[in-house]
Amino acid sequence: MHTTRRGLMAAAAGLAIARPAAANETLRIGAMPVGSGWYVAAAAIQRVVAPVLEGHTVEIIPRGGGVANPMVVERGTAQIALSNVQTAVLAANGDPLYNGQKAQNIRALVGGLNPVFIGAMVRNEFLRQNNFTTLDQILDSGKPLRIVMKPQGSNVPPAVDTILAAHGLSRDKVRANGGSIIQVDVAQIPAILRDGRADILFDTVLRGHPMITELSLTADISFLDLSERSLEALARVGLRRAMLPQWFTGQSGPTRSGDFGTVLIAHASVADDVAYRVVKAIIENRDRLVSEYPAFNAFKPEDAWKPENTGVPLHPGAARYYRERGWMS
């Protein structure tokens, strides 16, 4: 894990530092690479926010991820960003994942945007060849495992490390046993599984996720339940137990999973009026956002301020809006 954490922090530190946005400046939204669910989400947010922020140009940063984005905001590279509730809390507390560095300036704007599940997807040919039916059997088999997942900066690699450790494995042990760990951008993942260069994908799963949708339609895969050991281990690092609904081809029903949660965060020095207008635009354009990004269908605006949905303190501008609506005292 130490190598993983050093790589994460080096990547976050390497991002250009910029001042939080003021009038007549660019407001940057931290997302993930093009093709990811969060890039689509950020684009939808950009379209509803830009018209209400006079004097600001709103841009998307097409990199980062669930782990990196709290520090992207802390360092001012983005003024607002999509984050997982879990990683926002870990960053604010200076968890070892962040080498003890604390994101002391991150504040919540809108929480409970959508659940973010961790999913395990496996090629059916691999299951048939080895007479596997469960993820437990796969991870406990001692056979070479070819795993594909996103690069560092996403919340996926730390979650995979937790799942592997629950079964007495690590990335190094997987490699030593003749397996492989492939980390690539989301756009490359479907072809890697279709071509048989990997057998197991661990990834975040959202309703309408572009890459997962493509994969489920073009590759012969099954979604498998996470093991009880994995779920217990993930709960210890902040993922809530959850059932991944039956959204995709390859699912025979809901599957057992963990939920990272999603919150839009901002730097504490973003002007209160800017934060207020961003929150107002998102809340009052919920239906439009859902039409462009179906994962937001789970979003309940009246619950967007609640601590369990934000993880970190509310920005004063956001709190003002929720009080005006009568949702929070």
Main structural class:
alpha/beta
Q: How far apart, in Å, are the first and last alpha carbons?
A: 42 Å
Mean pLDDT value: 90
Strand percentage: 15-25%
How would you characterize the overall build of this protein?
The protein is α/β, with parallel strands linked by helices and 329 residues long. The protein has helices at 2-13, 37-49, 69-74, 85-92, 124-130, 135-140, 156-166, 171-176, 189-194, 210-218, 228-236, 272-284, 286-292, 307-310, 316-324; strands spanning 26-30, 57-61, 80-84, 106-111, 117-123, 146-149, 180-183, 200-205, 221-224, 240-244, 255-259, 262-267. The strands form 2 sheets. Strands 5, 6, 7, 8, 9, 10 and 11 form a 7-stranded mixed sheet that branches. A 5-stranded mixed sheet has the order 2-1-3-12-4. The relative contact order is 0.19. Mean pLDDT is 90; it is low at 1-23.
The gist of it:
By secondary structure, this protein is α/β, with parallel strands linked by helices.
Features:
single chain, 329 residues, 12 strands, 19% strand, elongated
Helices and strands in order, then pairings?
Layout: H1 2-13, E1 26-30, H2 37-49, E2 57-61, H3 69-74, E3 80-84, H4 85-92, E4 106-111, E5 117-123, H5 124-130, H6 135-140, E6 146-149, H7 156-166, H8 171-176, E7 180-183, H9 189-194, E8 200-205, H10 210-218, E9 221-224, H11 228-236, E10 240-244, E11 255-259, E12 262-267, H12 272-284, H13 286-292, H14 307-310, H15 316-324
Parallel strand pairs: 1-2, 1-3, 6-7, 6-8
Antiparallel strand pairs: 3-12, 4-12, 5-8, 5-9, 5-11, 10-11
Helix pairs in contact: 7-11, 12-15
